[in-house]
Amino acid sequence: MVHNLPDIAFFHTLTDAAAEQTLPRYRSTQNLHIGNKPKEGFRFDPVTDADREAERAIRALISAHYPEHAILGEEFGAVGDGETQWILDPVDGTRPFLCGIPVWGTLMGLLHHGRAVMGMMSQPFTQERFWADGVQSWYRGPYGEHALQTRKNLSLSQAILHTTSPEPVPRHPGIHFQPLTQQTLMTRYGGECYAMAMLAAGHIDISVEYGLQPYDIAALIPIIEQAGGIVTTLDGGRPEGGGNIVASGDPQLHQQVLALLNG
After folding, report:
1. Is residue 245 over pLDDT 50?
2. What Gene Ontology molecular function terms does this protein carry (predicted)?
3. pLDDT of residue 35
């Protein structure tokens, strides 16, 4: 564990502040204002005042308690520099947020010298939190608190595969996703960041995501790694910078997955 970093209690404080902004706007047609910030491959990429206000609340607390820390957030960009940086996605999964489906979450990752060492994913509607404290990954929810552990020692034919949307698959013919689906037990879609948390919890075995930004993955890297899993780019590199990302619960299985995806 890296010393001189915030304790996990501060992460909980941040998620409490974010939830005060997101929950009143969730499943509420009166409280929510929706905008569009088109990006490559997407005609509609929604942003809401839940995203913006939650990030403002998180940033204000970090700046008050750790003014020396840098911050990168989806809505308001990067400020500061230094060896410690917060990576924020106030509402990861704005599409399911708009649909009323509770697979969105607030993501907060902490990088030290460029490496993701702590992180939290909060789903306030289901009252669940998944976090990595620098040593171990944990879950807290309606049924108590316990350590997270990925699933190990299974063959590819037993593995459950997830990707958030099938839409990017035909746009990336060099990534051999279909051969992977043909060798796994089943493929599911639509889980967003919640699916990555389920991988850390041992319910999903492989997650493939296309074109992620650092704020989409930074918080989830330590949650998966400290639960015993592995997260890399498609070429096997470190994932903090985003891109095409592969996560597996079993590091041995991960090598088979990368080989298949790379053809």
Report:
1. yes
2. histidinol-phosphatase activity
3. 57
Do 229 and 151 form a contact (C-beta atoms < 8 A)? no
**Is-contact 56 72, C-beta < 8 A?**
no
What mean pLDDT is reported for the chain? 93
- The arithmetic mean of pLDDT across residues 171-198, rounded, is 98
Distance of CA 47 to the CA centre of its chain: 17
Rounded distance between C-alpha atoms, residue 225 and residue 112, angstroms: 15
Residue 247 three-state SS? strand
CATH superfamily of 8-147: Fructose-1,6-Bisphosphatase, subunit A, domain 1 (3.30.540.10)
H/E stretch holding 229 reads none
**Exposed/middle/buried for residue 242 (C-beta within 10 Å: 0-12, 13-18, 19+):** middle
User: HEC profile for 109-178?
Assistant: EEEECCEEEEEEEEECCCCEEEEECCCCEEEEECCEEEECCCCCCCCHHHCEEEECCCCCHHHCCCCCHH
Where do the H-state alpha helices sit in the chain?
8-22, 49-65, 94-99, 177-183, 192-200, 214-217, 220-225, 251-261
Place of tokens 């907060």: 108
Amino acid at site 92: D
| pLDDT for the residue 44 | 42
Identity of the amino acid at 23: L
